[in-house]
Amino acid sequence: MKYRLLIACALVLHALSGCGRQPSSAVEDAVLAFYAARPSHRDVDRGLLSRELAALLAAANDAEDRDRARVKASEFPDDKPQLIEGDIFTSLYEGQDRARVEHVEFDGTRALARLAFENTGYDIAWTDQVALVDENGWKIDNVIYGREGAAQPDLRRLLATFTATVGE
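and the corresponding structure tokens:
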């Protein structure tokens, strides 16, 4: 009887301690580590990205490389090739120098984090959302741009559009 009571207490403590729930701190740690590095699309650690987002980024980088080669081989080798410019991981071209997680929501193996960003040099603050997926750890899967005037509504569409239009 004491053994059953001990197991029941352990199960109750396990449930009350939050074990089995999605820990928002793991998502916050993943997102803040990603943005602390202030990555460019060329030097981002693809291990921090979902498989799908890493593949989209690789395709966009390959398209950029192909267009550079096309322009160099053309009769106008000094023309500017089509490039991915600016910070694509936030909705501000100049990027951020401060990030803070405001809120995290979970849906199974997916999470959506609302981030407050700042660019102190330009005295600009804004909010974007970062979608994550649990692929043996939380990985960035998309960035939903929050600032008005963004060329695309999110990072995935920006990369897909760029890849589809380069060389047209």
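(Above: one complete record from the training split.) The longest helix spans residues 51-73.
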